[in-house]
Specification:
Layout lengths: L6 E8 L5 E6 L3 E6 L2 E8 L4 E5 L1 H4 L3 H8 L10 H15 L3 H12 L3 H24 L7 E6 L6 H14 L4 E7 L12 H4 L1 H4 L4 E7 L11 H10 L4 E5 L8 H4 L4 E6 L12 H4 L4 E4 L7 H15 L12 E4 L8 H18 L1 H28 L1 H16 L4 H13 L3
Parallel strand pairs: 6-9, 6-10, 7-8, 7-9, 10-11, 11-12
Antiparallel strand pairs: 1-2, 3-4, 4-5
Helix pairs in contact: 3-4, 3-5, 4-5, 4-9, 5-9, 15-16
């Protein structure tokens, strides 16, 4: 290949037939003719932007898709270097590059104040792009969002790999947002979900992003919802969100997905969990996993118990009644039937209009969740409050002040005019 600036670059964008394009990055333009449609790819080696023009994705002239990559960043305090960064990330994201998607998610997960501002600027452009794409899709959502939860050892990772390989074989692009529990002492995380999905992680039509909980109960962080939007902008039409699975705290994931699936292992001591409303009332489908071999009889028994328990729950939807099914990720038994039920659920909710109403409601829920989180951050960083906290905590521990009165005093200091 030599030391020249021209080198081979594997284009992650694929046609509907699944053909990958092999490009050279040397600032040149390559044009192909396929099925009567010209696909032009322009590569800028100076800013390392990959900009593609494709009529089928833009819904109009080929040049319109290229113009999206040169988006103007409205924020007046964005430097030229930051503008180049955002333009590169945005162009790569909507072009379907997995590397750019990974960089974008890393940016929105950052706790750095300036990077959070840049992430919000990027997300605003992504929302505009998604809105335009949905309008071209007759107002229908671009992706099917599915939340997966269950106790440790339920087989969530194995289930996701089996379903993911089946979907990619059908032509879908699958994104997996797997949340791993963080250590309470060191704050670290093994991020082992990707290592358990070895075959799916090598699939070019799949993207797996493990993320640490960072102390968030239930494993759903504030950036999970934003990562879903980024995956949709990158062209993934199925987004699977796997959570830690700690019980009733999994209500959080139900506020960001279209469908909530609860995975339960057989003979795991969870027979009585069926009578607990908080565990299953948010589930649209309860899946009994590992229903094969010696575990098949207990799987049938657990299925009957959960089916009986869910009869006493009030349904969330007028068009769908929660169901209980059993599958085996090892043999693949029940997987196609389960996906058929999930597609039936998605279609029914979409036709009735409940899906769009649910997404609008979810956006408002997350707006207020972020407001509460930001208020707590500002409260802890308030100068007056920072001065009062040590003495106030001392009085609370000594019993001189009740926790409620101490909270009121700090809130008065926070709300007082400077």
């Amino acid at each position: 290949m030599g030391t020249s600036r021209t080198f081979l670059h594997l284009c992650p964008w694929r046609t509907r037939s699944g053909i990958s394009r092999l490009l050279t990055r040397n600032g040149s333009t390559r044009v192909w003719q396929q099925s009567g449609t010209t696909v032009s790819t322009r590569l800028c080696c100076q800013q390392h932007l990959l900009i593609r023009c494709h009529p089928s994705r833009s819904g109009g002239p080929a040049g319109r898709y290229c113009q999206q990559a040169s988006a103007s960043w409205a924020a007046g305090d964005v430097s030229k270097q930051e503008q180049r960064l955002l333009s590169r990330l945005y162009a790569g994201l909507i072009g379907g590059q997995r590397a750019s998607l990974a960089e974008c998610i890393t940016l929105v997960e950052s706790q750095h104040k300036r990077k959070r501002q840049l992430a919000q600027a990027l997300l605003q452009h992504v929302l505009t792009h998604l809105k335009r794409q949905e309008e071209q899709n007759r107002g229908e959502p671009l992706a099917f969002r599915v939340g997966l939860s269950g106790p440790p050892g339920a087989g969530k990772s194995t289930f996701i790999e089996t379903v993911g390989k089946m979907l990619t074989a059908k032509g879908h692009k699958v994104s997996v947002l797997a949340v791993d529990p963080s250590s309470c002492t060191s704050g670290g995380s093994l991020l082992g979900d990707k290592t358990r999905m070895t075959e799916l992680s090598r699939d070019m039509n799949a993207y797996i992003r493990p993320s640490p909980t960072s102390g968030t109960l239930g494993g759903v962080t504030r950036t999970t919802n934003e990562a879903i939007l980024l995956c949709e902008a990158a062209g993934y039409d199925v987004v699977l969100v796997e959570t830690v699975g700690v019980g009733q705290s999994e209500f959080a994931v139900a506020d960001m997905v279209d469908m909530f699936v609860l995975l339960i292992p057989p003979a795991g001591g969870d027979e009585l969990q069926g009578i607990k409303r908080g565990i299953i009332e948010m589930a649209d489908i309860v899946v009994i996993t590992k229903a094969d071999g010696d575990l098949l009889p207990p799987a049938r028994r657990i299925q009957a118990e959960y089916t009986s328990a869910m009869k006493f729950l009030r349904g969330k939807s007028k068009t769908w009644k929660p169901q209980v099914t059993r599958i085996s990720s090892r043999t693949g038994e029940g997987i196609p039937e389960l996906w058929a039920k999930m597609e039936e659920f998605h279609k029914a909710r979409l036709v009735s209009g409940e899906l769009l109403d649910q997404r609008c409601r979810q956006q408002k829920v997350w707006m207020w969740n972020l407001i509460q989180e930001n208020l707590l951050t500002h409260f802890r960083e308030h100068p007056t409050v920072c001065q009062l906290i040590p003495a106030t905590e001392m009085k609370v521990t000594d019993g001189a002040l009740s926790p409620g009165l101490a909270a009121d005093l700090l809130m008065k200091a926070f709300s007082a005019k400077q």
